[in-house]
Amino acid sequence: MKETMKLVTVLLLITAAAALVLGITNELTYPIIEKNAAIKYQEALKAVYPGADSFEKEEQDFSDNPNIAEVQKAIKGGEVVGYVIKAIGTGGYGGNIEFVIGIDKENKIVGFNVLSAAETPGFGAKIKDDDYKANLIGKTSAVEIDGITGATITSGAMQRGYEAVFSTIGILNGTEEKVDINVVREEKILSVFEGATLTDKSTDVASENILYAAVVKKNGEVIGSVFHVETPEGFGGTVEFLLMLNREGKVVGFEVLNHAESEGYGAEITSENYKKSVMNKVSAEKIEAISGATVTSKAMEAGFEAAFEAASKLK
User: Fold this and answer.
1) From the CB of residue 40, how many other CB atoms can be counted at a distance below 10 Å?
2) Residue 7 pLDDT > 90, yes or no?
3) What strands, in cross-sheet order, belong to the sheet with 197-200?
4) Considering only 129-143, 172-186, 232-246, 296-310, which range has the smallest mean pLDDT?
5) pLDDT per residue over 250-260, tens digit each?
6) What pLDDT shows up at residue 157?
7) Tag placement on the chain: N or C end, fewer CB within 10 Å?
């Protein structure tokens, strides 16, 4: 028994010592790893905007756009000469595609590089080819960029990324207004519940999928409820939508606010037919799936379930 206890004690001491050494090693190497990663990222920025002396992170926040990861100002001679945007082409054939792209003050692409992608060799993987990169140089809008033959899904993902990039550039240059999602949300709600007032109940229905919840009142009486929902990952990322219910819990309004699903498949959630199919439903199980869009359908189902569950908490 004494020998067993001694062995256990020795093993515990060895384990503790190993954990301590590992912790110290991580503490010492983490700053080095972070520094090397930062250097590599600066090199990636320089590669797509070779004319810049340095780069500074843009102050404006674009985190509400699922296709924009980061915006860096390209600096030369102390002045901003353009931007480098780390963008995400959501819903590629092999998953999301992360890339960096340099845009000058004339809205022209000056550089492009793929950071992360798992597209099919010979098809979608052509986005890494020098010819593909060369064809992007000088383009000033997403519509000027051709898709890749035989790689429809990859092309769609990249197009979503490019559209987000040029929209962001428009906002930075002052030629396009940044959309305030809160204003858009209220406008859409009041287009269904005309003359009503909203009482925020978000804290009463705390859920990772419910971004906003409110009780709708008119003339002092509750006439319904509304929910701003963010689904789990769809094919192209999360989907944000508004679900509006009347006092009886039936759907009287549905609007997709943000998505990156594939045209002809998951993007069907934005169609009038899908919208009509959702109306008057009282539970998620009553809502039909989209043919050929299993991933999107499951994400939407989870979102509807979250909304109807939240609605039950407000009764």
Assistant:
1) 10
2) no
3) 197-200, 210-218, 221-230, 240-246, 251-258
4) 172-186
5) 999 999 998 87
6) 86
7) N
